[in-house]
Amino acid sequence: MYFASSREATAFFYIFIDLFCAGITAVLLYTTLGDIERTNKRLHLVSLLSTVILYCFSDSIWMMSFSNYGLPSTVIIRYITNIFMYCVMTVCAYSVCRFFFSIWESVTSTLPPKVKYAFIPFALLILAIITTPLHHLVFSIAGSGILIKGPLYGFVLFLMFGYIIVFAIISIVFYFKTQNDFAKEQYSFVTIFSIPVLIGAQVHSMIWTLPTFAIGFTSATLIIYIFQMRDLISLDTLTGINNRRQGERFFQEEIRRINEEPHSTIDCLYLFMMDLNKFKTINDTYGHAEGDKALVATADVLKEACSHIYRRCIISRFGGDEFVIGVVFTPEEAHLLNEKIHDLIQKKNETLNSPYKISISVGYTYYKKDFKDSRTFLTHADKLMYEMKEIAHREAALEEEYGKD
Description:
Blueprint: H1 6-33, H2 40-66, H3 75-108, H4 119-130, H5 132-135, E1 139-141, E2 147-149, H6 153-177, H7 181-206, H8 212-234, H9 244-260, E3 268-276, H10 279-286, H11 288-305, E4 313-319, E5 322-329, H12 331-352, E6 360-366, H13 374-404
Antiparallel strand pairs: 1-2, 3-5, 3-6, 4-5
C-alpha cells in the first residue's frame, strides 16, 4: 500500500487499530445484548461496551484531523474533534465507575446513598471541555493546529482516571480483608481491569501516535466479558446470589481449613439451611411468575440480613426454594442472624404487596469435626430445617383450627 508520507502511514495504521478494537468490542456487545439475563451489572456492561466503541470512533476521527488524513486540520475542526474525543473519554470514565459500583453492589447488596451524585464531577468536566474555546482552561488550538494544554488539562486527566485508581486501591484493600471467595474474585477483577486501562492511558499521553488507550480499554472490556461468563457459572441467574456449586465449594474449603487447625477457636463455621413454606402452593395458586418473585424477595432479605458480614459469609441458592448461608460466627451471632432473617421477612411482606405472605423455615448448626465432610454437615442442617418446618406447619394448623372456632 502506498502512502504519500510517513504521517499518512501512521494515521492509517492508527485508525485501523482503532476500528479493529471497535469491531472486537462490537462482537462482545452483540453477544451481551443477545443474553436474556438483565441484571444491573449486565446492563452497566452494555453501557460500558457501547462507550468503548464510541471512543474508538472518536479517536479515529481525532487522528484523521490531527494528521490531515481525510479531514482538514483547521483550527475549528481540531477544536471539534478534540472536544468530542475528550467528552467521550469522560463518558467512558463514568461508565467504568458505574460498572465498578454494580460490582460492589453484587458483593455488598447495598451502596452508599451518595453514589447517585457520582455523575456531578463528570458533568462539570464535560461542561468545562465543551466551553474550552471560550476560556482555554482545558486546552486551546494554535493557528498551526497544535493542541496547547491549559492550566486545568492535567486536572481533567487526573479526574478522568483518578476514580479508577481509587477503586483499584480500595479493591486491593478489601480483597485482603474479606474471607468470601466470591467477593475476593470481584475485587481482584476490579484491580485487574484497571491495569490495562491505566497503562494504555499513560503510554498514549506520552506517545500520541500510538492508540494504546483504545487497546487498553478493549483489553479491559475483554477481561470484563470473561469474568461475566464466569459469573454465569457461579451465580444463580434468577436471584443473583451464588449457586449450589459455589456454596459447596465454600463449605469444602472452610471444612478443610478447620480440620487442619490444631486448636479450635470460639468462632464456629455455621450453616443456615432454609426454604420457603408452602412454596408449591404459591406456584400452583398464583403462577410461577409470583413464585419467582417470592424467591427473589427471599434472596434480597438474606442479602440484607448478611450485609454487615458479607466479607466472611456466603449466600447461595441450592435449588428450588432452598437457600443456604455459610458464615464463621459465635453462637450469639448465629442466634441474632436467625432472628434478623425472620424480622426482615416480616418487613418484606409489608412492602411486597402480594396476595400471599412469605415465610421460611430455618435450621442452623455449626460444624463439628465428627461430621468429617461437607455432605454430612449439610444433611444435618437439612434435618434441622425440616424439623422447624414441621413445627411451622403444626402452628399454622392450630391457628387455622382456633380461627374457625
